[in-house]
Amino acid sequence: MTEARIIDGKALGQRIKKEAAQHVNALNAQGVCVTLDTVMVGDAEASGIYARSQRKRCQDVGIEYRLHTLGDDATEDDIRAVIRRLNDDPGVTGILLNLPLPPGIDTPAVQYSIDPYKDVEGVNPANIGLLFYDNPIIAPCTAVAVMEILKEAGVKPRGLDAVVVGQGAIAGKPVSLFLLREMATVIGCHIATRDLYEHTRNADLLVVAVGKPGLIRGEHVKPGAIVIDVGINTFVDPDGNKRIVGDVEFDEVKQVASVVTPVPGGVGPVTVAVLLRSAAEAAQKQLSRPRRLDG
Question: How far apart, in whole angstroms, are the C-alpha atoms of residue 227 and residue 163?
Fold first, then answer.
């Protein structure tokens, strides 16, 4: 059997970014300024590095980037107050809350306070809930990225036996719902699954989003399967060298699968591009009146 087709997430991400830029330009022509207001709490140095990267990505597609920082001593009420101000500001079209938040903060509760029409990551419960009905305002970016990769690979989920390992709210569960919508037969695996590899070995389509390096090896994959690796982990070798790896043992799995995504360079850059496109879509949807959730 030949090696798997390796999906170039960077190239796909560039094409999606081009779509985002075209959408932003069209909105600018209507007098709409697309923004991304990012809230960061804690380590100022780390925040600064991350913010510079975010600003560059936004600039690439014409989105105005604004950073709002709070110190390590910020309370949940402090963070909510910033988000409430951004929700109420008509000049703000997109809000992103960077994680992690300091210990003791109820992260989901803070995320849920973001206006679902400005929630560019699709993490507000209104967006997660509407996904259940196939009609989110803004869908979770990582899950959308997985579906974009399947489209790029020419994979139609209908009729496939799909296994999604990891059932987190941002990736695993939304991916499972997307695949159900596309008429795949979906099994969701998680920490309580008794025989994980019995499921993965029978999957036509395997999506792994756990955060455990090397969880899936070659012998755990059905020959010819499509394997999407959502995991991003920092691996430290015995010499102290660090590198980014996924949840899949890439060199082994590419010998078995028909399609596989690398880490880095797979789902990650597509997710970033989808977020930028979602920022443009959020601005567009805020022009609609009445809004679906009003009243």
Answer: 10
pTM over 0.85: yes
Domains of the chain in sequence order: 27-128 (3.40.50.10860), 140-269 (3.40.50.720)
**100: pLDDT confidence band, cut at 50, 70 and 90?**
confident
pLDDT for 151 equals 98
Cα–Cα distance measured from residue 74 to residue 105, given in angstroms and rounded to the nearest whole number: 9
Instruction: Quick: pLDDT tens for 62-90.
Output: 999 999 999 989 999 999 999 999 999 99
Burial class (CB in 10 A: 0-12, 13-18, 19+), 104: exposed
